[in-house]
């Protein structure tokens, strides 16, 4: 069987782009035609009987019917049910991811493994990645834990020596959100007018997004971790689920409250993209879930929330209630990525979908297809690294991931996509006017991450006549003068 790592076919797509897509939910996504050498590849999906893994297996089967999908898990009954839905080009294998021999046996004759058997928090070893390296199998995980992601990155040299491509944090968020951030930064650098200065990730999911108890466990475990953010290049630690902001996610989602969480894309994008100020926030609905999450960080000791066995007990306690509320709240999901530059330029990307349980699989499948098409170099990479997803392959990945979205825009100013139009007041300008721009630029405080503000006065010289519009920035609480 031809190994995936040796099938490196570069995509011939444009290097620069601005994505603007508002796609209707597609019941039958377009079939992807892979290169001949990888068209019949075998994909092992660990956690394939769970919500995220099952969604990934389904998306891969729809996008590439010629792929052989191996669903791996511990429950044979669930596995048989999943295989019956996927069709004849699939099978189930029972795998214990904590057992190296079991893993290596499952990976034998497999071209690529998708590790979706979370949660990843408080996991001490990268057993799946190690087994993938030993068996020379390409690798993708949907990790959303900083420590696990950095541990995976430490295997870069071993993966390089084995000549296998590997991507960590290759899901929806982190994952697609990282690629969105990389494209915003690339576009800003290409313009060459101002340096990327502040990058902020905002996420919203209604309830658990229909993604099941694993997502609930992940959320609880993250509440036990101090939030790592960056302010002007300085690493700071903050209280989890604090620093609330009310963010406009655009049509279909509108304004939602979001709170600080410790997510791996903060560190990776700070290091890889070179943006000095980076943070990530998350919020859910109904509103009382946010109150409950904030209360847990105050009432329960961090040690309790970092204990996987105790968190699993909490999940079992809350799961019936969460499922009941999920039926009412729905499972809409949205990501908003904001980039601000030193010249005052502010651009965003928004990705919104009606069903997280569907789009999380589509997003992960987009990374799988990118690796199969040769867009990933040997080694272990984050999605925003050019060796992880080649710059010229990002457009295709984002378009594939965005199938079925209700709103997907890239590289637009906030006022063009937010649901609450800004108040605009035109003021006359002299032919050669020096215009004072009073900008409230936010500075990170040690208490809540983004609450202190400092008034800065910048002089801008304009030689042309015309009008200036005062645009009141909602998300940052700023006032900016734009032409």
UniProtKB/TrEMBL annotation:
It comes from the Eukaryota. It holds the Pfam family Sacchrp_dh_NADP. Residues 43-162 form the Saccharopine dehydrogenase NADP binding domain. Signal peptide: none annotated. InterPro entries: NAD(P)-bd_dom_sf, Sacchrp_dh_NADP-bd. This is Saccharopine dehydrogenase NADP binding domain-containing protein. It comes from Turnera subulata.
